[in-house]
Amino acid sequence: MNAILYIHGKGGNAAESEHYKPLFPDCKVIGLDYQTFSDLKGTECGVAITPWETGQEIRIAVEDLKSRFENVILIANSIGAFFSMIATPHFDHGSKNAGIDDMIQKAYFISPIVNMEKLITDMMKWANVTEQELESRGVIHTDFGEDLSWKYLNYVRSHPIEWHVPTQILYGSNDHLTSLETITDFANKHNAILTIMEGGEHWFHTEKQMKFLDNWIKESRCMTLRPFTIDDAPIILSWIKDKTAFRKWSADRYPVYPPKPEDMVAQYESDVIFPFTAIDDEGKVVGHIMLRYPDPSKSVIRFGFVIVDNNLRGKGYGKQMLQLAIQKATHEFGAKKITLGVFDNNPSAFHCYESVGFRVVGTDSYFIDGEEWTEKEMEINCK
After folding, report:
1. Rounded CA gap, 204 and 195, in Å?
2. pTM greater than 0.90 (yes/no)
3. Residue of 5, 59, 8 lying closest to 33 (CA atoms)
């Protein structure tokens, strides 16, 4: 069973997690209340919630769930997303890679705060507070109800976000805390899938907004990668409708068309090849990808035979599968770099690879059924 951990935003509470139980009926849905919220009031920090305390709480909760459940999926709202992305162990001394990335299978962020430094400096401008003044006074109370803290600002600057979890983001076009430019920049840098609700606010609460949120989750529910089996082959091969589509997928790797399931299995008979099948949260086969070590150093992973059910194309499934594969290649296979090739006559695949961070590094050509096909070599460096 999977666990869903809900992290609320400012003014929220763990009870909000009840809303997500019908959306994840086969998962254990758990909400986390920040214990530090009341403990920190009146301390020298001057702020009710701090990332160095709340981040530790989140990490402890994730560690506990990871020890008891197969996978942990994160749903985080507003500042809860920020706290989650910088959740570090209590012994952290500024490490950029001490977070919860390797314990989270997937994340759903709702109106996330993704650039806290910008938000704080924006609030300083609203309150006409300079950095020198904030440093001198330590904490400044504002007329709009927020406390500005020099310690908080310095913590944010010394702990830049490092986030490598496959992430879905829901953003309202009328969000008053995070600009479209800021959220788009974050999504691009972290290979997240961004969904924008026109007219949506930072706080999703109206009937129309909650319906949009629910549909967003339903359409992007958890995808997982499991090892490929021969029973998957007929399903995967059925998505290939003609010989041209077949060659775009397989290049010259198969001698005949159409291939049989046993031909597909034969492609993977090597101890350096690792085929995976993508399934949705109901166990339906929705995609396929192969990972292999192209050289003995095992520092590079090459992707191949990438395909998604053609009935689901254009809905973000390919991007989700690639994000999961990148995470697997990085954390489980120890890859420092991932490479792949894509034919020039397959622009939709090219744009999909580009959307998760792959960049063109060269070109090549193949003779396919008597014709010369050109292709782009692409790669991404693992973080």
Report:
1. 14
2. no
3. 8
